[in-house]
Amino acid sequence: MLKAALLLVPAAALTDESLFELFKSDYVKSYNSTEAEAERFTIFSANLRKTEALNAQRVDEDDAEFGVTQFMDLTEAEFKAQYLNYVPSEQVLAEDVYAAPEGFAAPGSLDWRTKQSGVVSDVKDQGQCGSCWAFSATEQIESEWVLAGNDPLVFAPQQIVSCDKVDQGCNGGNTETAYAYVEKAGGMALESAYPYKSGTSGNTGRCKKFETAGGDVESFSYVVPECKKGKCNDQDEDKMAAALASHGPASICVNAGAWQTYTKGVMTNLQCGSHAANALDHCVQVVGYTGYTGDAKACGKGLKDKCVWNVRNSWGTSWGYQGYIRVQMGKNACGIANDATFAKVK
């Protein structure tokens, strides 16, 4: 694999051409013509220069590092169009905000992958379809289904992509309206019964007949009050940590423009870019955190030992930490606390 190859040979010692050959091999890339391949190589080389510039701005050894990912042959605009399609709702769909039990103190670390079996399903891959919102909603419903006392099930994001007519399928949507669709539909079909195909075709697809197997959404609530406009500088990550620790993982929507070439490390507020409400473009799931000391805003002031959110993405296991990314806590990095939700399922 490319990452293994780069451990053996310093990246700076490899030419753009050599890196491109490794990239094509590792990610099984092929192009329709020599002209198309030449165009993709030009884009690949431009992205390499961007990663070099991003890495030169790292302040601390724990900060995020950028390099070759499966998205290196896409322009910024192509990447956004194919993978970043969060579309906020103009409607006020709920005003409920979750409250942790009185006196509850969030622990210093939390990981729902290990805290309770089945709460976090395997990492999914949305493929070449802007369906992150549907995947985030599906993942959250899967988690809530188990937390409600049911056996784990793998639900079908394709159902939401194709059948939710309020949202726009591969052209984007948001988790709140996805929850509303699932509530109206009476639950979700199993992935095995309604397999995901939009990731390969890039098309939303027509809604098919299906039988629900569970995951009937009754309502949803915000983890902390939603930030729908402005700079969103005051999102309460202490309350968010307490909510995750006392309830479970949360669906979140973030600014993920800089995630295109993320490889490892902690994505800082500076590296994320804006955390304003209008900067959000991607929906994922936060499953826990590490290094928390009871005061999120005090995290990482000395740069070392940052408090970190652990976030599950929907770009497969070859990206980041086997499909996960680490995001700095305490500064609303990437807008991580702007649009965080829990769903209530039967």
TrEMBL record:
PROSITE patterns: THIOL_PROTEASE_CYS
Protein name: Uncharacterized protein CYP1
A Gene Ontology BP annotation from the UniProt entry: proteolysis
InterPro entries membership: Papain-like_cys_pep_sf, Pept_cys_AS, Peptidase_C1A, Peptidase_C1A_C, Peptidase_C1A_papain-like, Prot_inhib_I29
Keywords assigned by UniProt, alphabetized: Disulfide bond, Zymogen
MF GO annotations: cysteine-type peptidase activity
A Pfam family: Inhibitor_I29
UniProt cross-references to PANTHER family, sorted A to Z: CYSTEINE PROTEASE FAMILY C1-RELATED
SUPFAM superfamilies reported for this sequence: Cysteine proteinases
Stated family: Belongs to the peptidase C1 family.
Database matches in Gene3D superfamilies: Cysteine proteinases
Source organism phylogeny: Eukaryota, Sar, Stramenopiles, Ochrophyta, Pelagophyceae
